[in-house]
Amino acid sequence: MTAATKIPATAVAAGGIIGGYGIARWTKKRPLGGVALAGAGAVAAYEWHRTGGTKAAVGLSAAYLAAFAGSHPLAKKVGAWPAVFAVAGGVAVASWAVTRRAGA
């Protein structure tokens, strides 16, 4: 991967939620999953700010945190992995919707 290679914030955010949960589950160390979640969130927020401005970054960061929090009660109804994939998809769609024009 070169410095010119970019991964869209949409993928970073969704990957952060999925990866954070996967790391926490497989290592049995929730804080380690939290580090991955926070790191991906920070990278995504930087990119959201760069492409969409402050309002986009703040709104999408709030959505990212709400998705993480919302996955917990949702998991009790549909299961852990389906909940994680659902909220990751929601964040990805929101990210794309807010920043799509900025990237064009």
Number of strands: 0
Number of helical regions: 4
Order of helices and strands: HHHH
Biggest beta sheet attributes: none
- Please give the share of residues in helix: over 70%
| Terminal CA distance | 23 Å
**Large-scale geometry:** globular
| Computed CA radius of gyration, to the nearest angstrom | 14 Å
Which runs of at least 5 residues are low in confidence (pLDDT < 50)?
none
Structural class: mainly alpha
Pick out its properties.
mainly alpha, 104 residues, 0% strand, globular, single chain
Structural commentary:
With 104 residues, the chain is mainly alpha-helical. It has helices spanning 9-27, 30-52, 54-78, 80-103. The longest helix has 25 residues, at 54-78. The mean pLDDT is 92.
Secondary structure: elements and pairs:
Elements: H1 9-27, H2 30-52, H3 54-78, H4 80-103
Helix pairs in contact: 1-2, 1-4, 2-3, 3-4
